[in-house]
Design goal:
Helices cover 69% and strands 1% of the residues. The chain is mainly α. A hairpin with a 6-residue loop joins strand 1 and strand 2 (483-484). It is globular, with a radius of gyration of 27 Å. The protein starts with a helix and ends in a 33-residue tail after the last helix.
Length: 551
């Protein structure tokens, strides 16, 4: 028995950790306890050197001294302030009016707002709870299928995990030893593509099952002109002009990829906001408006979050600010927006600060426990065991990626994304690097995969968040006065299944089309280094005169 334990110390240690987590023990304490227990066992069996434990204080201090992790409390605080200041409510109300008459319009509005909230909050709980409280009653009021409504809300909220400034991407970059800015830039396009796939699914449902996603009745649509029109033409012209202005300002720029999108969006935002303000001033002074009510309302509601996106992501992408500095500016920007909406209070700030402190302490404690576990795991040559196991898989890089993603997908049924990021990623990263896989690409693939941990029945946290705000009993709708049926847990779970499939498809797309991520490296030069010639001109120096010898 002793010989068996010595030969299989690493797999036994990993299996013990999984068992403790499945039994319900907190992840931080499970990691630390398993690490220390097997350190003692390893010392007794002669498989672990006690000297390794001397490095433990330095590792714990390294966690506290990690500047990258400072971005987590900043982005968390920013998201919580925005969520409590009513920005989500304003966005959902206006965008819902914009898409309302279209079949499936409310679903498109939820997905669109989910992507915007993801790019401003980065917190899944805030997005799911906000949209669940605001949009779910409206969708049920107008006859949406409960499974479709629940699935769209939960899935759109999880976009906050893959669209920057995602918290999991910060942890992923830290664990893989890569730049958070590169990880953000690499994940930007896959996040937008995933939102597009969600919208594509909503479109298919609206075509195949039209009664499941009805449009809003005309009487429910506001922001109409005097003649009864909605003024969408004015809004379309404004958006087109903003896009043209953004392209014009960037036409001679050398930037590319996500940098180009964010910067051109910034110029378009400035143009649209300036036009909307001019329209408001002219209307107040003369009574004449050249923009419709819908165009002006949509612009005023969308500009603040879009500007905040540039303030955070734009400054990171173009290299003006580090992720930590970008998070600090985002937190300050969220406070300014809350104050501008006259919704900022000391109570709101206190609640946001307390929630931020709890989440930050949660992350740090898990990271400290992970350091204890990894120290022992490396001391018993666990990293060698994992690397040999994974690099010997058939199929090279593709075989490795398929196996790893299947493995993470199964673990996501039982572990949340923080536990996966702190436990699994440090074991997989060295093997991926050994196979020549770009670690930013690898991190984005796993980020999309781990997004399913929020949607997996029965332990998906997004499903729990939605369950906490969805009606559990029959209730009376406050607008129509009708008695409404509750949303069952089974309907929430079944509504999530199609979106889990979409997320798996997205994993395959990122693997098949790495250019979606690899643009973060920049444009490669086509110059062959072997053809470069460096010619140093010959310079004739004057004779050196040292003068007569000194006596």
């Amino acid at each position: 028995m002793t010989a068996f334990i010595i030969a299989n110390m690493a797999p036994i240690m990993f299996a013990s950790l999984v068992v403790m987590l499945l039994l319900g023990y907190p992840a931080a304490f499970s990691l630390g306890a398993v690490g220390l227990f097997f350190a003692v066992v390893g010392i007794q069996l002669g498989e672990f050197r006690p000297d390794f434990l001397q490095a433990l204080p330095e590792r714990v201090y390294g966690v506290m001294n990690n500047d990258t992790l400072l971005a987590i409390p900043f982005f968390t605080f920013m998201g919580l302030v925005l969520e409590r200041s009513g920005m989500a409510e304003d966005l959902l109300d206006t965008i819902g009016q914009l898409f309302g008459t279209i079949r499936g319009g409310l679903a498109y509005a939820v997905i669109f707002v989910g992507a915007l909230l993801a790019a401003t909050t980065g917190v899944v709980a805030a997005s799911v709870i906000s949209m669940g409280l605001i949009s779910l009653p409206i969708m049920l009021r107008y006859g949406y299928d409960r499974r479709v409504a629940a699935g769209v809300i939960a899935a759109s909220g999880t976009l906050a995990q893959i669209i920057p400034p995602s918290l999991v991407l910060i942890v992923m970059a830290d664990q893989l030893g890569k730049s958070v800015g590169d990880m953000y830039e690499g994940a930007f396009i896959p996040g937008l593509v995933l939102a597009g796939l969600y919208a594509g699914y909503a479109f298919l449902v609206s075509m195949i099952f039209p009664k499941a996603t009805p449009g809003l009745p005309k009487e429910a649509i506001g922001f109409r002109e005097e003649g009864g029109s909605r003024g969408l033409g004015s809004l379309g012209i404004l958006f087109l002009a903003s896009g043209v202005f953004g392209w014009f300002m960037m036409r001679n720029s050398s930037v590319h990829g996500a940098d180009y999108v964010v910067l051109s969006m910034f110029y378009g935002i400035i143009f649209a906001f300036a036009v909307a303000v001019l329209n408001w001033v002219v209307d107040k002074l003369t009574g004449f408006r050249f923009l419709s009510k819908m165009a002006q309302q949509t612009t005023f509601v969308m500009v603040p979050p879009l500007f905040l996106i540039f303030l955070v992501l734009g400054t990171i992408f173009i290299g003006i600010a580090t992720p930590t500095e970008g998070g600090a500016m985002g937190a300050a920007g969220a406070l300014i927006l809350g104050a501008a909406k006259r919704r900022l209070s000391w109570d709101l700030i206190r609640q946001a600060a307390e929630s931020t402190a709890k989440l930050s302490a949660f992350v740090v404690f898990i990271l400290v426990g992970a350091r204890v576990f990894s120290l022992t795991f490396y001391g018993v040559n666990g990293h060698v065991w994992v690397e040999h196991l994974l690099t010997s898989l058939p199929g090279g890089q593709i075989g490795f990626l398929i196996f790893v993603n299947a493995f993470v997908f199964v673990l996501a049924f039982f572990l949340d994304f923080f536990e996966l990021a702190f436990i699994v990623i440090p074991l997989l990263g060295p093997a991926a690097e050994h196979l020549g896989i770009d670690l930013i690409w690898f991190g984005v693939i796993l980020g999309v995969n781990m997004q399913t941990s929020f949607m997996h029945p029965p332990f998906g946290f997004a499903l729990f968040y939605l369950r906490s705000v969805a009606p559990k009993e029959r209730y009376t709708d406050r607008v129509t006065g009708k008695r409404m049926d509750p949303v069952t847990t089974g309907q929430i779970y079944w509504g999530a299944v199609p979106f889990v499939v979409i997320q798996i498809i997205m994993v395959g797309l990122v693997i098949a089309f790495p250019a979606m991520v690899m643009h973060y490296k920049g444009v490669q030069t086509n110059i062959d280094p072997s053809t470069i010639k460096i010619e140093v001109p010959q310079i004739e120096l004057p004779p050196l005169d040292l003068g007569p010898p000194q006596k």
